[in-house]
Specification:
about 15% strand; single chain; four-stranded mixed β-sheet
Length: about 550
């Protein structure tokens, strides 16, 4: 990462142009604009850029060395990035647990069609690969022209990624209805985006139950807003995947909760961890400060049209019970751009700060895994743990964030605390929950220490309650249909919770599912069903048995 105070010669890159290195160590500028198109208009193809030598007659960019940076960094908020050293490789155990940090999209020749797969089996387009490579070469570069990547092809890709059964927004438009005459609608949408006539609609507010008994507010954008947000998020992901640190796993291409769980398990087993800080930011998505977020975006994004779109989405308001309400802070959960904006906000507020804190102030080892606003931190010494908790509260308060008092705990955890408690005749250390699993200290059959994981009790209770309600609703459907539904439920449960140390909980869930099905069949007829008859039914419709879907590699 280039230092913010670098004294290298600075070059201003014209809008629509990108720098690419040559074999001699100098920089070429590839102009991706159409010389015959008016500013802000749509360009049909960005593959065929105009290659011109810096300092040539058609441009004012001078030839520069490989150390050249882009000027124009915003002064406000510069303390968020200055002072942060280069991100260490994930193979360095001294820096903690970033087991996959630095894993980016693979590069390739810009003259060829490069297929880069994300976890969703999507191909990274060539124009976005060029954006990714430019962001990777210069961590301080600001992108002044990005909106031309929001074209009809990109909008169609975003449309194809939408779930066909997704809820409609305030416009009542569904994926099926919008698909009629799709190309004409996307062309009109693209023209409105590039001419400034696109105006986001208010977000429809809905509530879903939470595992703790409360309700979570979700925002359902209009269909066209989903399409444009998905396209802009795809462009911004190509830039920020370079910047995000390795311990961040939530809502990122190619990453999933099980990678976060595996990274945490490996760190707890291999690093010197004696204390665990299990924390959750209180109402994070509802508390994101808009002005701070936009200032953070300006560190990388200098295209005013993209910033204007993001500001419009943030301030579009919500529609609840037919009434419009103004939104002054927060990003609606459910919007396609919200997870990326949340990651960007936490990258500057939390990730870079923790990375700097553990290098400058920590006396011992510190490991960290973050998934969205939920994170777990492992520390070697108690004084580091207490100081980190106090400093973290102060840090979050500067950005109008607070830790959830009931979900934030500092506990003893690890190999050494387990041995010390055993010598004193005390019980094993406390447990903590992360991503639906309860983590606890245990032993293998031969007596060795191991961190085990089982299904969190609140998640299991919530799942069984929902299963009973749905079974009651399907009570009078054919038995074969009920069987297919229950098989889907069980296979989905095994796919997520199928860890080696969780087999007993998987068997318990299977037994409870059988009981739920038995009670539903028993209630639908006056001829009472007994367990013997139900056993005959299970012989014809056997429910899938538990299986380990995520073998432990630590």
């Amino acid at each position: 990462m280039w230092d913010a105070d670098s004294k290298a010669s600075k070059v201003r890159i014209s809008r629509g142009a990108e720098l690419f290195p040559t074999t001699e160590g100098s920089m070429w500028v590839i102009d991706t604009r159409d010389d015959h198109a008016p500013p802000g208009s749509q360009v049909a193809s960005r593959m065929k850029g105009h290659l011109r030598k810096p300092g040539g007659p058609t441009g004012s960019v001078q030839q520069a060395g490989m150390g050249a940076t882009c000027e124009g960094q915003p002064e406000h908020g510069a303390e968020l990035r200055s002072g942060i050293g280069p991100v260490h490789s994930t193979d360095e155990a001294l820096e903690g647990n970033e087991g996959v940090e630095g894993r980016g999209w693979p590069g390739g020749s810009l003259r060829k069609t490069v297929k880069v797969r994300t976890q969703g089996r999507r191909t990274l387009p060539l124009n976005l690969l060029r954006v990714y490579e430019a962001a990777k070469r210069n961590k301080q570069a600001r992108f002044t022209a990005l909106l031309h990547h929001v074209d009809e092809v990109a909008l169609e890709r975003a449309f194809r990624r939408l779930k066909r059964k997704a809820s409609a927004g305030v416009d009542g438009e569904t994926v099926t209805s919008y698909e009629e005459n799709l190309q004409t609608k996307l062309k009109n949408l693209c023209e409105r985006v590039h001419t400034g006539r696109y105006q986001p609609r208010a977000v429809r507010r809905v509530y879903i139950p939470k595992s703790d008994g409360g309700q979570r507010a979700l925002g359902v954008p209009a269909l066209e807003d989903k399409i444009v947000q998905g396209t802009v998020a795809e462009v911004l992901n190509a830039i920020y995947e370079v910047d995000f640190l390795g311990f961040s796993y939530g809502f990122r291409p190619g990453r999933n909760p099980h990678q976060a769980l595996q990274s945490l398990h490996t760190a707890l087993m291999t690093q010197c961890v004696n204390w665990v800080l299990d924390a959750d930011i209180r109402k994070f998505f509802d508390s994101v400060d808009h002005e701070w977020l936009l200032r953070m975006l300006e560190h990388r994004i200098a295209d005013p049209r993209v910033l204007r779109l993001i500001r419009q989405w943030l301030t579009a308001g919500v529609l609840e019970s037919g009434e419009w309400h103004e939104v002054v802070e927060g990003t609606p959960q459910g919007a396609g751009i919200s997870p990326l904006l949340a990651n960007i906000f936490l990258h500057y507020v939390f990730d870079l700060w923790v990375h700097q804190w553990r290098r400058r102030k920590a006396r011992g080892r510190i490991i960290l895994v973050r998934y969205a606003d939920d994170f777990v931190m492992g520390l070697q010494y108690a004084d580091d743990a207490r100081r980190m908790l106090e400093d973290l509260k102060e840090r979050l308060a500067k950005f109008k964030l607070t830790l959830h008092a009931d979900k934030t705990r500092l506990i003893e955890f690890g190999r050494m605390p387990t041995l010390a408690r055993a010598r004193r005749g005390q019980q094993r250390p406390e447990t903590f929950a992360f991503l639906g699993f309860t983590h606890y200290c245990g032993r293998t059959r031969d007596g060795r220490f191991v961190v085990k994981r089982k299904t969190h009790s609140k998640r299991l209770t919530s799942k069984l309650n929902a299963l009973r309600q749905e079974a009651k609703r399907r009570m009078h459907t054919p038995v074969s249909d009920q069987y297919r539904w229950l098989c889907q439920v069980l296979r989905g449960h095994y796919a997520y919770y199928g860890l080696p140390s969780n087999f007993r909980c998987l068997m318990g869930f299977l037994h409870q599912t059988r009981r739920v099905w038995f009670n539903a069949l028993r209630r639908r007829s006056q001829r009472r069903l007994n367990w013997e008859t139900f056993g005959v039914l299970l012989a014809h419709f056997p429910l899938p048995l538990p299986r380990i879907t995520h073998p432990c590699t630590a």
